[in-house]
Design brief:
It is a single chain. Helix content is 80%, strand content 0%. The protein is mainly α. It is rod-shaped and about 120 Å long.
């Protein structure tokens, strides 16, 4: 429209009409400018603002997930190691208790055996003492019997006895009786009896 008005104004017209047309063109141009200003003043509703785009959910970094997995694995291994050591300690404690029980049982058995052996030793000692006393009494009785015999008779019986017993009887005889009895015995047997007497360290009365 502006261009048309300009065209009308600039068109070559006769001089008498030029001022009237110029005035009309100026009025039209002013009305047009006023109309354009009115249109410019009309408030055009703004388009609704677009909702803010939701930020895309970012998945947790892979490194964080891997770190958490490694941490869980380390915790599991630590708990497993603790459980293993606890089981080993419990087993060792049970083994020690069993060993102590076995040692205590062995000590109790050893004490019972020692007590039994001590009692048996006492009984054997008493028996030996009794038998020794009895044997000594018997030898003393035999020596008394041989003293009432003739030396040849006593020597004949004594030569048939074992050498230790013959020497034990001979040492209980009186010296005046022992000499003739030993002289009446076979020289070899008499020599063995003499060695036994020396061995026993016996002395004639």
């Amino acid at each position: 429209m502006t261009q048309e008005l300009c065209t009308i104004i600039t068109t070559d017209h006769p001089p008498r009409h030029r001022r009237s047309r110029s005035l009309a063109a100026g009025l039209a141009l002013g009305a047009l400018l006023a109309s354009g200003s009115a249109w410019a003043a009309v408030t055009v509703p703004a388009a609704p603002a677009a909702p803010p785009a939701s930020a895309p959910s970012t998945p947790p970094p892979a490194t964080s997930a891997a770190g958490a997995h490694d941490e869980q694995g380390a915790d599991s291994r630590a708990m497993g190691e603790i459980a293993r050591r606890r089981a080993a300690l419990d087993k060792r404690e049970r083994d020690l208790e069993l060993r102590e029980a076995r040692i205590a049982a062995a000590e109790a058995m050893a004490r019972r055996e020692i007590a039994a052996l001590t009692e048996l030793r006492g009984q054997v000692s008493k028996l030996i003492t009794h038998e020794t006393g009895k044997a000594d009494a018997d030898l003393t009785l035999l020596a008394t019997l041989y003293s009432n015999m003739k030396p040849a008779q006593a020597g004949a019986i004594m030569s048939k006895l074992d050498i230790p017993k013959a020497a034990a009887i001979l040492r209980r005889l009186d010296t005046r009786m022992a000499g003739p009895v030993l002289a009446s015995i076979d020289p070899d047997i008499a020599a063995n009896i003499s060695k036994e007497l020396e061995k026993q360290g016996a002395a004639f009365r």
